Structure formats: C-alpha cells, structure tokens
Automatic annotation (TrEMBL):
Domain of life: Eukaryota
Amino-acid biosynthesis keyword on record: yes
Record Pfam families: PHP
UniProt xrefs under InterPro entries: Histidinol_P_phosphatase_HisJ, PHP_dom, Pol/histidinol_Pase-like
Family under the similarity heading: Belongs to the PHP hydrolase family. HisK subfamily.
Enzyme Commission number(s): 3.1.3.15
Alphabetical GO biological process terms: L-histidine biosynthetic process
Name of the featured protein: Histidinol-phosphatase
Gene3D superfamilies found in the cross-reference section: Metal-dependent hydrolases
Tagged with keyword RNA-binding: no
Catalysed reactions, as listed in the record: L-histidinol phosphate + H2O = L-histidinol + phosphate
Length: 347
C-alpha cells in the first residue's frame, strides 16, 4: 500500500542517509500517496547520545530537530500536489521524568507543525536495546544478579532459570504503557522491539508478559491508535515485519487498526521489504489497512474541530484515521512488487 507513517533521513538523523528531500522524491517515484516524516525526538543528556553523535551536544540535537521541522514544513508545501506529507515525531522513553519534560517542551514549541506521534521505546534501564547486540546485552545484564555481571553467562539469556529476558521485556512493555497512557500517540511504533535480538522468545508462554501486551494493545485501541506493520525488522534479520505473529493476531482479534511503515533511514530504504509486509498481512488474513490524513479543520492559532465521524484521533486532533477503500491488496501500487509477492495471495 502506498503509505508509510514512519521515516527518517540522514540530514536530520546521524544513522540515516540522504536528504529529507531525497526521501520524499523517492516516495513520489515509488507511487506513495501519503508519507510521514517522523524524525527522532532529540535527547538532552550526553549519556544518551549514540556513538555517531559523539561530535554533537544535546543542544546540537535540539537545533537539528528544529531545523527538521522547518525543512519538513517547506517540503510539505513544495510537494503538496504530488502526495500528502505529514510531520511527526518519533518518541523516546529513556527516563520517564527527563523524557516527558523534554517531550512536553517539544510539543509545545512545535504545536503548529507536529501532526502526530509515533510512540516508540528504544531503551530499557536507560540502555539502548536496538543499537547493536553488544549494547542490547548490556541492557540484558542490568537484570542479572551482580555475580553474573563478570562472567560470560551474563549474555546467555535462555539458560535454565534465567529470567533476564523476561524481565527486560516486562520493563519494556511497562515503559510502552506509560508512554501510551501519557501521550496517546497516534501510531504505535515497532510494538515488540524488545525481541529484536531474540525473535523466537515466546511471549505467550509468560502470562505476566502477555497480560502486559494485551493491556497495552487495548489501551491504544481505546482511543483509535494505528499499529504499524514495520518492515525494517526484515533488514535486521527477522523473517517477518514487526509485530511478531502472536501480537499481530491479538491486535486483529481485538479490533485494532493496522498501518504500514518502512521506517526508512534514507531514500534507498523507502518501501524496502514491502513485499514481505504484503505477504505477511495476506497470510494472516488482514482485510483492512488504515492511514492518517490531515484534519483540514485545523487553523493556525485556532485549534482543530473534531467533526462528527469519530475519525480524529490523538490529543493533538490534527489527523484523521482513514481506511483504504476496497481491497488494499488489489491496489496497483503492489504491481511493482509482483515478482516478490506470494502468487497465491494475488488471487
């Protein structure tokens, strides 16, 4: 489907490539009708900067985000006739009070521009869990007893009696709940990112974990959030997009709304692995896909009207959720992926 609600560029993200303009032009070339520009929110502590940001300061990151918003607004107007561009922000959840104070300030400063949030968690115990395996293992080790921290056993989470991976996931889903509960993000980002390096870990075998998963899904559904089917997991070694099949099945059974994201970090990643997303959704019987469109009642300085159809979502009231008309899998967008699609699913 020619939509993505989660993207980045090398111009405003140090682990991305290409300019924001080049990402947009690639999306147009690929036939997208709606594309979300969702740069990472900045981090305001030196300890939270990534290695590729070692030449920067927290102030630099804040300035970089401000420039992103300016550039995104300019490009939104420039390409308005070719596709709908929405401006978003992908959240962090590092340390609650620090993250929330910064996020509040960003949303206030950029209130006229930020259409929606992608609610994402990338840290547990203030340690990144998706940067690389070594850093993930540091997060895992933070749940080990002190005696294990000096041995190689620290990084073996699935040995008998070791609960570290379960505890890490519990902390992750609690942070996700706190974020959803506090900010009502319009899109829920890579729901089960905590499983990136352990995709075979079965959440359903741990009742406390599965209860958290269901609780978070129900909360997001309660205000109409969209759950992204994020194809970036494929390039990171998964056989399916996020979320994993048990979670996808639960979202579907509870009536959740699904959308597509490529989570691109440069023009070469736009629509990457969308054929896998297509096959995954068709294999799991997904009948509807949703996307966001601008709430055109919003006027500068005058707020936004909700209308009477219930489609406006999120406390920002700047976007509406819209379902793809007809059978999404028949859209001509998919013709460019024909060689990669399951032929049985094209019938």
């Amino acid at each position: 489907m020619p939509i993505s609600l989660h993207s980045h560029s090398g111009q405003f993200c140090q682990h991305g490539t290409g300019s924001l303009r080049s990402v947009i032009e690639r999306a147009i070339e690929r036939g997208f009708i709606s594309y979300g520009l969702t740069e990472h929110m900045p981090r305001n502590r030196l300890m939270d900067l990534y290695p590729e940001e070692s030449h920067m300061s927290p102030t630099d990151l804040l300035d970089q985000f401000d420039r992103f918003v300016i550039e995104a607004n300019q490009l939104k107007e420039l390409y308005n006739s070719e596709l709908e561009l929405l401006i978003g922000l992908e959240t962090e959840m590092i340390e609650r009070s620090v993250t929330f104070e910064l996020l509040d300030n960003l949303l206030e400063t950029h209130r006229p521009s930020i259409d929606y949030l992608v609610g994402s968690v990338h840290h547990v115990n203030q340690i990144p869990i998706d940067f690389d395996l070594e850093t993930f293992n540091r997060a895992l080790c933070s749940f080990k007893p002190p005696r294990a921290l000096t041995s190689d056993r620290c990084v073996e989470p699935e040995e008998e009696g070791d609960d570290s991976l379960r505890l890490l996931c519990e902390a992750y889903f609690q942070a996700q709940y706190d974020l959803i509960d506090s900010y009502r993000p319009e899109v829920i980002g890579h729901f089960d990112l905590c499983l990136l390096f352990h995709p075979k870990f079965d959440l359903t075998q741990h009742q406390s974990l599965w209860n958290q998963v269901e609780r978070n899904i129900r909360l997001a559904i309660s205000y109409g959030a969209l759950f992204e089917v994020n194809s970036a997991s494929i390039r990171k070694g998964w056989s399916t997009p996020y979320p994993s099949k048990p979670i996808l099945s639960l979202i579907i059974s509870l009536g959740g709304k699904l959308t597509l994201s490529d989570d691109s970090h440069g023009p070469e990643r736009v629509s990457e692995n969308y054929s896998e997303s297509y096959n995954y959704l068709r294999d799991n019987g997904v009948k509807e896909l949703w996307y966001l469109t601008r709430n055109n009642s919003c006027k500068m300085g005058q707020g936004c009207d909700d209308g009477d159809d219930g489609s406006v979502i999120g406390p920002r009231r700047r976007v509406r959720s819209v379902t793809i008309e007809g059978d999404w899998w028949e859209h001509p967008f998919w013709d460019r992926f024909t060689s990669s699609l399951n032929p049985l699913q094209k019938k």
